[in-house]
Amino acid sequence: MRMRRVLVAGISGAGKTTMARAVASRLRLSCHELDALRFTGPNWAIDPGFAGRMAEIAAAPGWVFDSFGYPEVRDLLWTRADTVIWLDYPRSVIMPRVLRRSLRRTLLRERVFGGNVETWREWFSRHHPAWWAWTQHATRHSEIASRVRDPRFAHLHVVHFTSPREADDWLRSLRPGP
């Protein structure tokens, strides 16, 4: 199976961006961070041209995205992809990762998508990555499981990992692209 259009799916904190960058580098494909494409302004403003821009990128012959996909582009990405790498890790793996990342971002006031920063106030919002990862873990697992069984996406090669060690071993074995 030759991977040319790859989605890396999982819940917040699974390591989607890290895996997407590693796969893209190994296969010599462009890597796209979906949050960076969607959130382009202050106060987490959403790019009004997001769906159109995604359609342009998805039409390219090769790419890697680090996301399950936002609702407005999810079917587009899943239809165009040839491979889904599913990082399906337990909460015991996810939560320390997402908490460390958010704590670092908050303390260091790291700029993320659209120049935004995570704040202490946001830690109490249901949209904060830590809360999202905790409350949506089972839901996201079910959504991805449903999609990989959906006949509309039968064309996809699914690479399913339930531990970071499995994913790391597979990544080391991944042969470089042309």
Automatic annotation (TrEMBL):
Residues covered by the ATPase AAA-type core domain: 6-41
Pfam family, any one: AAA
Keywords from the named record: Kinase, Transferase
GO molecular function, one term: ATP hydrolysis activity
Superkingdom in the source lineage: Bacteria
Gene3D superfamilies registered for this protein in UniProt: P-loop containing nucleotide triphosphate hydrolases (3.40.50.300)
UniProt key word Transport: no
PANTHER family listed in its UniProt record: TOXIN, YALI0E33011P
Protein name: Adenylate kinase family enzyme
